[in-house]
User: Fold these one by one.
Assistant:
Number 1:
Amino acid sequence: MTFVWISIGAVLGANARYIVTRAMTQWLGPSFPYGTLVVNVVGCLVMGAIATMVTGRLVDRPEVVRLVVIVGFLGSLTTFSSFSWETHELFHDGEWVRALANIALSVLAGFAGVRLGVELTPRLVGAM
């Protein structure tokens, strides 16, 4: 059942991301990634609320809620919420150096990965 719960949330999260991104582009234009910003911020808000309820056992069936909402829905909506929650937990646990390292490494390595993909892809698939 684990994969079923995750899949249900993932389908809903992916579609929510598409709908929000499309709506924000139509509303505010394509000059800035407003949709991504909105899903990341809203995803972080929801992550904070749901993770607090799950870890505090404030919801019935916390494992199902975790699988559907956190892993499935928020995992498809935005992985930024997972990154933000994990960084929050490091700060909360007093692991300031690890938290700052997670921020720096995630942002810089993510950007480097995108750049590497942009540079290597034309070479791998032929001149574009």
Number 2:
Amino acid sequence: MHFSGNKFEDNRGKLLFNNDLNLSEVKRMYIIENSNTSIIRAWQAHRIEKRWFVAVDGDFEIKVVEVDDFINPSDKLIVKKYILKAETMDCLIVKPGFATSIQSISNKSKLLVFSDYLLGEVNDEYKFDLNKWK
């Protein structure tokens, strides 16, 4: 689920916002900052964890695929692509059962990530080969 944010600007400065985003389920947060734009963090999936992604600096391309089998997933799954821009505080919500691929589009980009589980609360991390889905 993708929520486009927005911004307001006047003589005092800018206000970035995403008023449609509900974070009542969030238990923890962290920031991803890739060392350069050629780095791709792919493919990581969760069966039960829900995650929210918000670009807070720069832009990110996030690809998402619904995993059909966590032991032996199909190579022919449909990949959806989203662009998150910090200038409008876009948010992407990734439900359980999906894998993500994360790449910075601009240098020094920062991606704020929220999760509905505390670190170590569940054993729910699945990693697949970088080239599994294109």
Number 3:
Amino acid sequence: MTQRCIACHAQFPLDRIVYTCPQCDGLLEIAIEPATLAQCPWPPTRSRGVWRYEAFLPASAADAVTLGEGDTGLHAIPTLGRALGIPRLFLKHEGENPTGSFKDRGMTVGMTVARRLGARIVGCASTGNTSASLAAYAARAGLRAVVFVPRGKIALGKLAQAVVHGAEITQIDGGFDDCLRLLRDLSTARGEIYLLNSINPFRLEGQKTIAYEVCEQLGGKPPDAIVLPLGNAGNISAIWKGWRELHDAGRIQRLPRMIGVQASGAAPIARLLAGELDSPSVANPETVATAIRIGAPASAPKALAAIRESHGAAGHVSDDEILAAQARLARTEGLFVEPASAAPLAWLAKTRLDADTVVCVATGHGLKDPDAVLRSAPEMKRAAPTLESLRRVLELA
């Protein structure tokens, strides 16, 4: 395995700390030769979790910084499936990970590599989920954690996680993109902080295991399409990489379409593909879906490649559509996801995708960001402590 630039294809050893290509500033990925992939055991022999796929990963399970991430449920959601015209509709609930989001998959691999490389301080810019995950895994690894968040634009449930795990939190008077720019400058200028945002290719290696798990959970076959939220855009490329590796290893015979969904107030990739923008960047992104409130996705080149190579798509939905889909999922299927995770279902509700088997990826649990739900909650009923009062309030005979 090597680190390889996706633009100029320059290669670098795994033990070199580099976040983008020194030759062309292109994004990096971890390259595994097809012959090596073909030798990886499938299905894996290890029992569970992300490290079940050790043979496909650039680190050793024996050295893993782990909290038992992975093995999240692939939930059939037939009521919604019937309503949306999709015979087999599933929700891959990444909110079931240790800190409540998909970030844990990437963080277990990224933190393992950070410790192997001798890092003392790890850092991230975050809209919430990354900060929570980094803080927990840094605590597990015994490393100092620093987190940059946009002031006043992070869900309190996520911020509380970073606080309780002991991260040093700095609020930046700006957006997520400002936070990441400053962290990149600190990480590259003197190497004081090991950067663990998704621009780090080792992070995405953990996240690609979503594809592996879905494949096993569907009996060894890919779905027709994967639909997921797009924020900083690393996850769609990571999952696509997982499917490509299974295909290159001869484990699957076809590939799914990759479909990314953004909030209308923060939709640079969707608007670029629609011909409305010249570059994947919008100023002052704003949406109730805080996890995808990002105007200049760092992994946009990888995401665009995943969408185009898979003959996929990108779309955007309004905040009202997101909140309606979140409530619909909870009330018809009993599954509570954060607003960003409801964006794929909101898109399916108005697009009517022609497919038999579709997997929506819910990237975080609803308890990560309950504020939006509570702001729109109906007024609670009130009763005196008597049966007569309760019957009257509940309109019982």
Number 4:
Amino acid sequence: MQRQQTSAVGFEGGPHDQDFKQQKLEPVCSPILTSDVLRNVLVVVGICFIILGSVLLSYSNGIVEQKTRYDNVAECQVTSDTDSATLPKKCELTLTIENDMELPVYFYYELNGFYQNHRKFIQSYSAYQLEDGELHDTDGCDPLQKYDGKPIYPCGLIANSFFSDRFTMSVNDDDLCSACDITETDWLNNWDTWFDNDFFKKEGIAWTVDREDRFNFQEPDATVTRQGERQVAEGLNLPRVDDEDYMVWARTSALPNFRKLYRKIEKLPSGKKKLVKGNTVKINIMNWFNVKDFDGQKHVVLATVSWFGGKCSFLALAYLIIGCVSIVGALFLAVCKPERKLGNFEEFEWKNREPQK
């Protein structure tokens, strides 16, 4: 039996006989990429990218940051040999503001050498625990599912590696949280409700979708535990899953060196609208988090932001480089004007083939 063959182009009234599918839309522009057309395209792209890169670089350079490392301070050091009875290690950093910083100012902690991007780390959590309150569902939390025979809440590597240091701050001896007592001894019950006030603001540091949808805390009963091996050694509980500090930590970083937002400073007790050059800032730190075992580093960062986010000169420079390359390419085409010989399109016959029988 002879198979009937048809031309895909010659369908009339078939399911694919549409102007869009057959590329017969009118009016349509199909520019022929001569050297003049390509030169004009490169000029437009180059100018747009250079303008955008210059704007981004200007705003990026206008962002003010001040960063200080503190794990190398003797009083701040925590190691695996540190006696748990001496935790937390309390220390104080004193900074002098080097440049005026307009409010709001953002307070970050920064970790270097911590690989949150490891596949096993990213996958080690239970969505049913976090979203649905199924406290006994620890599937996916390997290798930290249970401790002392009880399910851990919240389980997994993300929760159990939570950054546990706590901070307070004062500007020119004006405490941003006058009610915060760094001599606290009952950290087990007070650590996970560490302060949030109008001057050192915690509310709003996490994504809206995390606060409203992803994390649902359920009060645990005696059948689960809020401590793993690390928390027992530190004398702390695991964070509540509705704690915004935990939500920020659970947004895992793509790089081993990263910073996480800790607090926002939107106003000062003095009523001033900015941190002025020469202001004295004191940061009290309660240290539990050990970075010596993985040769990491801990920093605190004070920074401003712009309309497109934090300091990022790389993006601006990338736009500038691409824009400059486009302009150079356009100049090359303007000088050389390479020819492109075109065929006589009037000689083509635009007819569909008849179906073969």
